[in-house]
Design goal:
CATH superfamily of the largest domain: Galactose-binding lectin
Strand content: 25-35%
Number of helices: 8
Shape: elongated
Distance between the termini: 63 Å
CATH topology of the largest domain: Jelly Rolls
Radius of gyration: 30 Å
CATH class of the largest domain: Mainly Beta
Number of domains: 3
CATH architecture of the largest domain: Sandwich
Helix content: 10-25%
Structural class: alpha+beta
């Protein structure tokens, strides 16, 4: 293990000891990330205030707001306490010297007490030897200090030091190189491929802000919980060099609060200098503190400088972003969203990709299904979601949408496990509070193992940019096997 590896492991131990969701824990994680970017670099108080504590770059005044000095003092004290109490027994310890915001990693635990040696007779030195001996010692100390100083400042010596980690270093823009990008904000690990085959990369192209870890815990409303393990927070931005064209932008959020501890925390997002989200509150938009939220925007293009520029600024709370996706789009229309209830994606006979089951809350998924008739894509009905459940599908707020719901009766019927027939399964479907289907009976419509499709047009998104579909049982469980959401064109 290298010294850098040991320091990184000790940093994670100390963050865990302080608590990742506490202010000292978040501050230590930020200072640690900056240390590994540039061990010799200094940090400004204003940067910490903006990136860690959500202060505004326009209004922060260190003479009136002492949040950084107070929290750094608190962190310094906490670090001393955990080592004095021997909570962390390792060969590396972390210190935060007074007068600086740069961490110091001290290698080597205090040596164990040695067995006392047998006493030797005291040796006497002639009085005349003391001044000369003292002069020699002082001379050696001075020479050693000068040599160390000389070695420290020599370029070849600095080049041999461990290079800073690059994960938190902004990537220099290269105009006109990107046509698609999926990034995990604040994340610096390996790429991850999701259940629909999308490749998610570590964070890049960012400006300012800090990386924080989210405490472990289930995130509802997503089949990709790995997207929400980290945040980029503070006031920050991104500069994406894009090939000229039309794109779709998706922003992914989850609240930092625990259920029952929610607070107002809205912030603003600007695109190329123009408002994109105003006073956005992720808890309100997602309808819960532990629910993933996604905001979708079509007709997004780079500016005259070839960059698509995003800026996140605080209002009441500090901005927090979990992930971001940019994909090629169609002018004036959101690309169709097709969801199969299966755990992996599916391509139908027309070459249309159906993404793996996502955006659901509650209910159960069953995948042991016989093939159905009445469709050229019987594999589409390889699964169902059943019970009492809902889907919150994010769309662009400006559109009107056609929603198609695909059903099949897999359980009830004289030849199936549930027996029965008409009236064995009855349920309602609502969309954004309006009724789509009342007392719907799949078996009554088509019998067992045969596709039934219901189409609804002119549907407007909710105030938070969602097509909310609620499936409410009347007799036994509601069910669905596929959902399509297609923006209508004038």
């Amino acid at each position: 293990m290298t010294s850098s590896d040991a320091e990184r492991r000790e940093l994670q131990r100390a963050i865990d000891a302080l608590g990742r969701s506490t202010r000292p824990g978040r501050l230590l994680e930020y200072l640690g990330n900056k240390y590994f970017e540039n061990p010799q670099g200094q940090l400004a108080e204003v940067d910490i205030a903006i990136d860690v504590f959500g202060r505004s770059a326009k209004t922060f005044d260190s003479t009136e707001d002492a949040v950084v000095r107070v929290e750094v003092h608190r962190l310094r004290k906490k670090l001393r306490e955990i080592y004095e109490k021997a909570e962390l027994r390792t060969g590396v310890q972390i210190a935060l010297p007074a007068g600086t915001y740069v961490l110091q990693f001290i290698t080597g635990a205090p040596p164990a007490a040695a067995e006392p040696a047998a006493a030797e007779p005291a040796k006497r030195f002639p009085r005349w030897a003391l001044p000369g001996g003292l002069a020699i010692v002082v001379g050696l100390l001075v020479a050693g200090a000068l040599y160390a100083f000389y070695k420290r400042d020599r370029p070849e010596t600095r080049e041999l030091e461990s290079p800073p980690a690059t994960a938190e270093t902004p990537t220099p823009p290269q105009p006109g190189q990107i046509t698609e990008l999926h990034i995990m904000a604040g994340y610096s690990g390996s790429e991850v491929i999701d259940n629909s085959g999308v490749r998610w990369t570590p964070d890049q192209y960012f400006q300012r802000g800090g990386s924080w870890s989210r405490e472990s815990g289930f995130v509802r409303g997503t089949s990709r919980p790995f997207l929400f393990s980290k945040w980029r927070t503070g006031e920050f931005g991104y500069d994406f060099p894009l090939v000229p064209g039309t794109y779709e932008l998706r922003l992914f959020f989850v609240s930092p609060y625990k259920v029952g501890e929610e607070k107002l925390g809205n912030f603003d997002v600007a695109l190329n200098g123009q408002p994109l989200l105003s006073a956005y509150d992720m808890v309100m938009s997602a309808n819960g503190a532990d629910i993933a939220d996604e905001q979708v925007f079509r007709d997004v293009s780079p500016g005259p400088n070839g960059l698509l520029q995003l800026w996140f600024s605080n209002r009441i709370g500090s901005p927090m972003l979990s992930a971001l996706s940019i994909t090629p789009g169609e002018p004036g229309r959101l690309k169709p969203i097709r969801i199969t209830m299966q755990p992996t994606s599916f391509v139908d006979h027309e070459g249309q990709r159906w993404r793996a089951d996502d955006y659901w809350q509650n209910g159960f998924r069953s995948t042991d299904r016989p093939k159905v008739s009445g469709t050229e894509d019987p594999e589409l009905f390889g699964a169902e979601r059943f019970g009492r459940f809902r889907y919150a599908i994010p769309v662009d707020r400006r559109g009107r949408y056609t929603v198609k719901l695909h059903f099949a009766e897999f359980y009830y019927g004289p030849e199936l496990a549930g027996k029965g027939g008409a009236g064995s399964r009855v349920f309602h479907v609502f969309c954004n509070g309006q009724s789509l289907l009342r007392d719907f009976d799949v078996y009554k419509e088509a019998g067992s193992l045969r596709m039934v499709t219901k189409t609804f047009t002119g549907i407007a998104p909710s105030a938070f940019g969602k097509i909310n579909l609620d499936f409410e049982p009347v007799v036994n469980n509601a069910t669905v096997s596929g959902i399509e959401v297609i923006e209508e064109q004038d």
